[in-house]
Design a protein that fits this description.
With 142 residues, the protein is of the alpha+beta class. It is 18% helix and 32% strand.
Length: 142
């Protein structure tokens, strides 16, 4: 009996389909956590200036051991939540230098002294796996 072209291509088509299904399945299993990110912990907090919450302050956690910084911005209540990247919330574990930069072009000028944006004179925070990683920073303004 002579093989038709359909019979010849069936094993190839089966292999391609099997490979596609396997690739999609493995990819879907990896979507929960990006392997390129180190261990992260959720970090939240409040920033006040002279005891009052301040909006539009960028909060930056720079790991003392080096690596990617995490950032967040305060809301009207002075609350922030850090993001490591666009898809990952939190900050790396360990000790961090914490910087504060006022970002409101429409707000009062010079709310924060420049020292809060200087890494050599910054505050520090320790991020742990156990948590809670909830920080309150009361900055002294002008």
């Amino acid at each position: 009996m002579k093989e038709t072209s359909i019979q010849k291509t069936m094993p190839m088509l089966t292999r391609v389909m099997l490979f596609a299904i396997l690739t999609i399945s493995l990819g879907a299993g990896c979507l929960g956590r990006d392997a390129s990110h180190p261990d992260l912990a959720e970090v939240t907090g409040v920033v006040t200036v002279n005891g009052k919450p301040v909006q539009n302050v960028a909060v930056v956690f720079n790991p003392e051991a080096g690596g990617h910084a995490s950032r967040g911005t305060t809301d009207a209540e002075g609350k922030f939540q850090l993001k490591y990247s666009g898809s990952a919330a939190g900050a790396t574990l360990g000790r961090h230098d914490v910087l504060f930069i006022y970002n409101d072009a429409d707000g009062p000028a010079n709310v924060l002294p420049r020292k809060y944006a200087d890494q050599t004179a910054s505050m520090n925070a320790e991020v742990t796996q156990e948590g809670p990683n909830e920080f309150t920073f009361d900055l002294k303004g002008r």
